[in-house]
């Protein structure tokens, strides 16, 4: 068995060394379905940028993903297609001009759309796109742009939203409050998809408590006093917020959705199609494209820092010395991406110095907790051996400790952005968009870092609070649910974190989790979880094993074991022998927004099996 494990460790290591870029980073794709490809075609056509070869390539990729029933799916085992994805693809293909509504494939798509409620039933983000591009009237939006002016003392204000929610909602407020619409000579007519129903942002039976929150915000706006035009001041503030957060590549916070919404919002503010800010933003979006098996894909963002920190850490865990050229180059890249600018996080922790890391290559102002812990894992030996790297380590540790939430957990981006009242706003995907609460995966991974790499344990007040928070969040079956993965991911993060800070593997919570994982192990030794877990709010098996889910589950069992058990042996054999089916390699392992947005990190097929097998080897050899 050990020979097979060593052979697989060597195979993965060789592949990673081969795939490293000249600057020391790894640029594996961050794949998010076809939504961004469709949005890019619609954006370019709306701006009348006739980049035909680029558009043709996107058309080919989108068309190639269509199902036999005419729909587009979000993931392999989705029983029927996704309505939003299908409307988006239908719109983009027609607008491209390279597909005709008489085409059999598009006619099949239209039939699917009409049979499933029509365009009025799509996700809120697509409703916004349909309104912007003049395909429907702007639905009533009950919150005025003056919400931008509510003071910090008001019980709900701009900085109570998550940084991601804030970044998307601000351009949306400009667009909704100006009723901006832009059609072009190429615009298709999608009126037949609406089935004579008006499109709405909110349902008629909107909950009473949601109406109360909106009424409360309106009262706050009414109480604003100023000698200038409040509406113009609010529009100016919203515009300035976006412009102040443009990254070096011209994008707004490195996200596709925020940048495209910013472009439309700037058009609403009177900018021309060819304004330098808009031109640079489009160039920035194009620069984030990648190729997947030869096909062009517009990435939602680049995952370069995340890829590189994870891979550097995994290589070192598997025995590659920190002095190796591959690790040295990677760590120099990582050090160069540590943040030195203040971001919105400083509003919630005003005395904290910058020191975190972000997710994307050119992300300089919105760091996150997960990237920061993995970056610190990657440079840990460097910080010990080289004095000039110690400062980066200290700044990162300081940022990470200070950003712990008051409830004891860690969130994704900022501190204490967890006012649950905002979840009452009736916005599609609101629970994943509007606030940034403590999560199981971030808390577990932060504790794992502190326990394994800084020598802190459960005696430390910070760890004690994190442990207490995590134990309260365990489900009755023994699992935990993660924010950026689902049940297997959340359980892996929680258990490895708890054990790292000294919680006994014999603790009832740990044993419950171990038993749960054993109960869902597949016959082939692996594990696999469906994206449906995310929609149904309970664990749903994939019925096939994936390398990534298997690695998470296996690593969890190893962290709580003193000897190799049959389940561990069986899981390691699945990874070592490459038993997975081809389609499982591209199955999304990450969640963005429940039911609408899933993430496929192409580096995961290498990173997590490498980590799990390295830890298996340590356990088997008694180290």
TrEMBL record:
SUPFAM superfamilies: Terpenoid cyclases/Protein prenyltransferases (SSF48239). The gene is shc. Keywords: Isomerase, Repeat. GO terms for cellular component: lipid droplet. Pathway: Secondary metabolite biosynthesis; hopanoid biosynthesis. This is Squalene--hopene cyclase. It comes from Neobacillus citreus. Residues 304-618 form the Squalene cyclase C-terminal domain. Pfam families: SQHop_cyclase_C, SQHop_cyclase_N.
């Amino acid at each position: 068995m050990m020979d097979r494990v060593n052979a697989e460790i060597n195979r993965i290591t060789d592949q990673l060394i081969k795939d490293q870029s000249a600057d020391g980073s790894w640029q594996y794709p961050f794949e998010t379905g076809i939504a961004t490809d469709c949005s890019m075609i619609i954006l370019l056509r709306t701006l009348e940028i006739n980049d035909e070869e680029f558009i043709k390539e996107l058309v080919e990729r989108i068309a190639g993903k269509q199902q036999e029933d005419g729909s587009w799916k979000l993931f392999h085992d989705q029983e029927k297609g996704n309505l939003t994805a299908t409307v988006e693809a239908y719109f983009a293909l027609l607008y491209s001009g390279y597909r005709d509504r008489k085409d059999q494939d598009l006619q099949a798509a239209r039939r699917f759309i009409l049979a499933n409620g029509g365009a009025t039933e799509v996700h809120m983000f697509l409703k916004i796109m349909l309104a912007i591009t003049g395909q429907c009237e702007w639905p009533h939006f009950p919150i005025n742009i003056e919400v931008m002016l509510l003071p910090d003392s008001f019980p709900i204000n701009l900085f109570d939203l998550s940084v991601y929610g804030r970044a998307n909602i601000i351009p949306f407020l400009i667009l909704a409050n100006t009723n901006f619409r832009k059609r072009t000579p190429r615009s298709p007519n999608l009126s037949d998809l609406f089935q004579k129903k008006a499109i709405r942002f909110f349902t008629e039976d909107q909950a009473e408590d949601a109406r109360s929150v909106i009424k409360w915000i309106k009262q706050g706006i009414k109480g604003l006093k100023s000698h200038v035009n409040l509406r113009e001041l609010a529009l100016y503030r919203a515009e300035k917020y976006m412009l102040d957060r443009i990254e070096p590549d011209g994008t707004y916070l490195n996200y596709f959705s925020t940048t495209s919404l910013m472009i439309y919002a700037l058009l609403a503010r009177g900018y021309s199609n060819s304004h330098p800010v808009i031109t640079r933003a489009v160039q920035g979006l194009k620069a984030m494209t990648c190729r997947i098996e030869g096909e062009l894909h517009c990435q939602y963002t680049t995952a370069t820092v995340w890829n590189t920190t994870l891979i550097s850490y995994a290589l070192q865990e598997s025995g590659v010395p920190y002095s190796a050229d591959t690790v040295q180059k990677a760590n120099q890249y990582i050090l160069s991406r540590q943040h030195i600018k203040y971001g919105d996080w400083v509003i919630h922790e005003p005395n904290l110095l910058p020191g975190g890391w972000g997710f994307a290559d050119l992300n300089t102002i919105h760091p996150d907790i997960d990237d920061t812990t993995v970056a610190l894992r990657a440079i840990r030996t460097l910080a010990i051996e080289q004095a000039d790297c110690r400062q980066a380590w200290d700044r990162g540790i300081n940022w990470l400790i200070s950003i712990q939430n008051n409830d004891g957990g860690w969130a994704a981006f900022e501190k204490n952005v967890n006012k649950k009242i905002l979840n009452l706003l009736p916005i599609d995907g609101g629970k994943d968009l509007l606030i940034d609460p403590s999560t199981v995966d971030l808390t577990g991974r932060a504790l794992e870092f502190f326990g394994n790499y800084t020598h802190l344990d459960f005696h430390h007040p910070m760890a004690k609070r994190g442990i207490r928070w995590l134990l309260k969040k365990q489900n009755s079956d023994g699992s935990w649910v993660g924010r950026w993965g689902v049940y297997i991911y959340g359980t892996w993060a929680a258990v490895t974190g708890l054990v790292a800070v000294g919680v006994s593997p014999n603790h009832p919570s740990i044993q419950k989790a171990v038993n749960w994982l054993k109960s869902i192990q597949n016959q082939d030794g692996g594990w696999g979880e469906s994206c449906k877990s995310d929609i149904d709010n309970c664990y749903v098996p994939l019925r096939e094993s994936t390398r990534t889910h298997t690695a998470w589950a296996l690593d969890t069992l190893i962290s709580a074991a003193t000897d190799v058990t049959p389940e561990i042996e069986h899981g390691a054999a699945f990874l070592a022998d490459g038993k997975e089916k081809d389609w499982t390699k591209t199955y999304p392992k990450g969640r963005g927004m429940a039911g609408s947005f899933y993430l496929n990190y192409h580096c995961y097929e290498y990173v997590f099996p490498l980590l799990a097998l390295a830890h298996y080897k340590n356990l088997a050899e008694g180290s």
